[in-house]
Every structure is written in C-alpha cells, then in structure tokens.
Amino acid sequence: MIIGMQYGDEGKGRFVDGMAHAYDIVARFNGGPNAGHTVEANGRTLKLHQIPSGVNYPDKKLYIASECVVNPIKLYEEMAEVEATGLSVAPRLHISPQASVIQPGHILRDIATMKSVGTTMNGIGPTYADRASRVEGSRQLDIRMGELLNNTQRAFAIVRQNLEVEAQKYKDALQCDGIDIEKEMARFIAACEMLLPCIDIDPEYLRKQLAKKMRILLEGAQAFGLDKTYGITPEITSSNTTVAAAFHSTGIPIEQKGKAFGVAKLIPSRVGFGPFITEFGGEKSEIHCMADGGKQHTHREERRSLGYGGIEQMLAGDDFEMGIALRMLGHEYGASTGRPRRIGALDVQQLAYAQSVNNLDGIFVTKADQLVHFARTRHKAIPVGIAYTQDNKIISHMPTTKAECVRTEAFMEHVAPFTQDLGDTREWSNLPTELREMLQRVSDIIRCEILSVGVGPKREQVVHRNGRS
Ligand code: IMP
Fold first, then answer.
1. For the whole model, what pTM was predicted?
2. What pLDDT score does 12 carry?
3. pLDDT per residue over 8-31, tens digit each?
4. CB 267 within 8 A of CB 274
5. Is the CB of 271 under 6 A from ligand 1?
6. With CB atoms 3.0 to 4.6 Å apart as the test, which of 2, 214, 224, 236 could cross-link to 231 if both were Cys?
7. Of 8, 3, 5, residue with least CA distance to 269
8. Are strands 25-28 and 61-64 parallel, antiparallel or unpaired?
9. From the candidates 37, 49, 94, 106, which is the catalytic residue?
C-alpha cells in the first residue's frame, strides 16, 4: 500500500507505477477525480484522475473500491484516452457497486458553494455529503454504482431530479441563465452506459481475488494532511486517506495487511486554502497562490509577470520570493488545473504525525534534486521545520484547529546545503553527505526509515537505499 503523507502531489503515482509490476491488481481506495497522476502509456504522457496507477501494465487488473466516488463522464473520457494509446482498459477495470456516483448536480453544488475551501470543483464534497445524508425528504440523494447497474432507469431519473433541484437552487450563484438539463443528462447517460460492463455486481470481487492468492497493491489518493478526520477542517478533502481507510474501503481484513509505505516531498506543497505552517511567505503566499481561485498566477502568468529580476534574484529574496522561485524551478503547478502550488519547508512534525497514525513500514521521499537550489538562497542552507512552538515553547501535540495553527510556528533547523546535481545519481552512497545526514535526522525523529529518494521527474530517477527497486 502507498499513501501520501503531506497535502497531496507528493509523487505517489511513480512509486505505485514502479511497484505495480510485482502485483496482479492495483486498487484505488478513496477519493475521485480530485486526484491526478501522470502516466507514460505506450510512449504517450497521460494525466489520469480516476483510473488506478499501473494502467500501463496491460496484464494488471484495476479496481476502484467502495469508498471512492466516481464521475462516469470523466472516467469514460479517461478510459478512451488510454485506449487510444493501444492499451485496453475496460476488460480489466472493476468498479465496486458500493462506490458513489458523482452526479452532475454535485458538481454544480461544489462550484456554487465551496469556493472558500479552494476545492478541485469535482463534486467530491457534495457526493460524500449525500452519501452520508442519503435522502432529503422523499428525494434520494446518493446513488451507488450498483444502482446504475441494477436499476438503471430509476437511477437516471433520480440523477435528473437532483440535477434539476441543484440547477434551480444555485442559478444565481452560478451566474448562468440556466443549465441545459437535457444536454447534461444525455452526456451522463451515454457515459454510464459505456461503463456498465465495468461495474461489479459482486461487492466481494477484491476479497475473492485475495483468496485466490492474487497480489493487490492499494493506492491512496490525496494525502494524510487532507484527510477528512486528521486534516484541519474545512480545507481538507471528504475522504479518509489513511492505511486503516484502505481496509475499510476494500473490505480486506486487517490481518492480511502487507507492507505500507508513505510518500513525502522534501519541499512540500499545498493547493487550495488551509494551514501550512512551514509555508515560505506564509499568508502572503497563500493569498498570492489562491488569487482568483488559483487561476491568476498560473505558470505562464508567473513567468510573465514575475520575471522581474529573474529567478536568481527571487531565490535570494525574502521567503515569499524564494517560494515563487522554487515553484517555478520545481514546476509546482497543478497537473490539470495549472494552479500554483504553495511551497514550504519540510515539516517533520507533520510526517511524525502521519507515521504515528499509519505505522508505515518505510518512506519514499521525492524532489531531493530540488534541494540544490537552497545553496543559492539568502539562507545558504536547507530550512527544515523540526518542531512546533506556541508562545516560544516547543509543543508536543499536533494542532487540530485553524485558530491553533495561527498561534503555532515552526521551529526551523538550517541544514548544510549541497551543490551536486543529483539527476544521474543512482547509488545511495553517491548521494551528498549533507543530504544523507538530513535524511537520517528526519528518519530518527519520525521513527521510520527513508527507503528511496526521488532525484528527478523520470521514473528511473530514484535512488534506493537497498540498491533495488
Ligand atoms: P476536494 O477534494 O476537491 O473537495 O478539495 C479539497 C481540498 O483538497 C482542496 O484544497 C484541494 O486542492 C485539495 N486536494 C484534493 N485532491 C487533491 C490532490 O490529489 N492533490 C492535492 N490537493 C488535493
């Protein structure tokens, strides 16, 4: 199993991809099209959202588990994209009948009501909310994939009714003359009909495969810092992202747990609003990145308007400018939306909390190559958030509210920088001593070994501690 330990976008997909060859099935256990991962399929680069990683191995089965939410239109479009590369998807994709359907009305509600969170506008929150509340009077709110399969026409009628209600309710907020219900429903129905063969009638499919000794790789979407329970409300996602959540969603008995690994970025990022204690430039950076819902400072826009003085000057500037420079150098913009990701220092307390809740067997870290830029900053050191303080005293617990985060500061350690380009490094012993010492210090604090280090964006740019992939 693989989960993200920070705020998402840690680079989980590449590790799932790298490990998938040793498994028979790759199963996604939470979230929906709010996730995004880049996959190389038959020489083409694809940005996928709902199809599990591992799709590029033609012999792997793919599973979307019961605690996921599925947008049929987007899923069908993604499948078509992958199939255009020559890889088949439909015959090996299995969708749990207990996963919920993201209905067109859910997306309208997300757009109309959830701007303050900075959601991905994919209808995730409304779908999970309706899954919990189930009905409003006599109107059924939540539809499962199994209902699409078993009672198709009734399911479509409910989706249509819900869309009519939401379109009417949010007409003003959506600033539109009206939604073309017929057109929306036609797209929805067409996609669902194509997906029906992928929906399992049997909710036990995955467990039965396990009983047949099939090896299952569980893939988490989003990350621990965005977890519905463990993240800080309201700027979190609506599903659980933990190791325990994977068992709940797939129904795999906990006694059958294999190894669980976490992925963390050495220069973390966050998209959307919400506390980010080690953020470079603090609130100024949050406001900058989220201007116009994140649409104002896209990569192209930052290049154009912030080109003053160039990257070098910004790197050497204050922390806010340094954050912009690191974002540009590390290409930290949303894979599908282009939104700028807020950038900060490694937050070791966050990782320790993730480790404490998830009891991981090891950690993969990414973006070690990007640490090289810190040698050119005014700190001439790699800043690492080692602990939290309140009123200048180290605290021993994790803040759980936004108000508490405002009173909390990161206690920073400044680690010796290195200047070596890591792109071609493949041996642990060839990593710079400064980096190895930093990783050891982090491992010691969080009490979990760092097993692999990403040194570039390509799949092969990874250094394994034990020398193997
Ligand atoms: P939602 O999941 O679309 O409701 O968005 C809630 C928050 O989680 C927003 O701040 C999103 O930007 C963030 N988020 C959701 N999924 C991901 C992801 O896969 N990577 C990074 N951030 C995410």
1. 0.95
2. 93
3. 999 998 899 889 999 999 999 999
4. no
5. yes
6. 236
7. 8
8. parallel
9. 37
